């Protein structure tokens, strides 16, 4: 069975474990029609447009 030759230092161990739990905030883009911030590749919740085409009818 393989056995480590040297003890892994606390700094090296913690460096490896530190990046696992971090979450990133979702990126937001501006809608081309109304300028409202929205998730990319999603229909705008404010105006109902996607890529310049009206997908969902919204009451004004």
Care to describe what's here?
The chain is of the alpha+beta class. It has a domain at 27-60. It is 15% helix and 13% strand. It contains 1 helix and 4 strands; from the N terminus they run αββββ. The chain has a two-stranded antiparallel ribbon with strand order 1-2. Strands 3-4 form a two-stranded antiparallel sheet. A hairpin with a 2-residue loop joins strand 3 (49-50) and strand 4 (53-54). The longest helix is centred in the N-terminal third of the chain and has 9 residues, at 10-18. The termini are far apart.
Counting H and I runs of at least 4 residues, what is the number of helices?
1
Instruction: For the largest sheet, list the strands in their spatial order.
Output: 1-2
Q: What's the story with the biggest beta sheet?
A: 2 strands, antiparallel
Average pLDDT across residues?
A: 89
Poorly predicted sequence stretches spanning 5 or more consecutive residues: none
Q: Which percent bin holds the helix content? A: 10-25%
Overall geometry comes to rod-shaped
Q: Structural class given helices, strands, pairing?
A: alpha+beta
Family: Belongs to the bacterial ribosomal protein bL32 family.
GO molecular function, one term: structural constituent of ribosome
Protein name: Large ribosomal subunit protein bL32
Organism: Ruthenibacterium lactatiformans
In short:
By secondary structure, the chain is of the alpha+beta class. It contains one helix and four strands. Strands 1-2 form a two-stranded antiparallel sheet. Strands 3-4 form a two-stranded antiparallel ribbon.
């Amino acid at each position: 069975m393989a056995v480590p030759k040297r003890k892994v230092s606390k700094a090296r161990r913690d460096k490896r474990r530190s990046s696992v739990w971090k979450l990133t905030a979702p990126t937001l883009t501006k809608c081309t029609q109304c300028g409202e911030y929205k998730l990319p590749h999603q229909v705008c919740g404010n105006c109902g447009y996607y890529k310049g085409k009206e997908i969902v009818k919204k009451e004004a």
